[in-house]
Design brief:
Layout (H helix, E strand, L loop, with lengths): L6 H10 L6 H13 L4 E2 L10 E3 L4 E6 L18 H24 L3 E6 L6 H12 L10
Helix pairs in contact: 2-4
The structure holds zinc ion (ZN).
Length: 143
């Protein structure tokens, strides 16, 4: 796909890719909600602006796209043009992820990274989330 786009075309495509409320993130949020967890999203006051925030539990969940965060799963294709530019960009993204996780740890927050490729198996993901968060404690009586 990338090979057939010129630079302007690729820029337009990238502009359409949204970095928040992505499909994998929405899958994780819906799953959490169905399990009984309540959370905030995109906390601006925390390092890395975590996607899903559990303030009372002092835990956050990041949902990382395999492409942008350069997951080693190989599921996301690698651009075959401007390889050096992309390699530098992925390296920066990964470095930022590491910095954010370290900064959260320093503030005594615990973080879980869920990769896009791990959001397809809802059963396995639910088990992992419950292990990380502990049982959902608060029953929301609102409609
Ligand atoms: Zn992946």
């Amino acid at each position: 796909m990338f090979d057939r786009l010129d630079q302007a075309g690729r820029s337009r495509l990238m502009a359409l890719i949204r970095s928040r409320d992505t499909a994998p993130e929405m899958r994780v949020r819906r799953l959490l909600f169905s399990l009984g967890y309540r959370y905030r999203t995109h906390a601006r006051d925390l390092p890395g602006r975590p996607d899903i925030v559990f303030r009372r539990r002092r835990r956050v969940v990041f949902v990382h796209g395999c492409f942008w965060h350069a997951h080693a799963c190989g599921r996301a294709g690698r651009p075959r043009v401007r390889r050096n530019w992309w390699a530098a960009k992925f390296a920066r993204n990964r470095a930022r992820d590491r910095r954010d996780l370290a900064a959260l740890r320093a503030l005594a927050w615990r973080a879980l990274v869920v990769w896009e490729c791990e959001t397809r198996d809802a059963g396995a993901l639910a088990a992992r989330l419950v292990r990380f968060l502990g049982a959902p404690r608060f029953v929301d009586a609102r409609p």
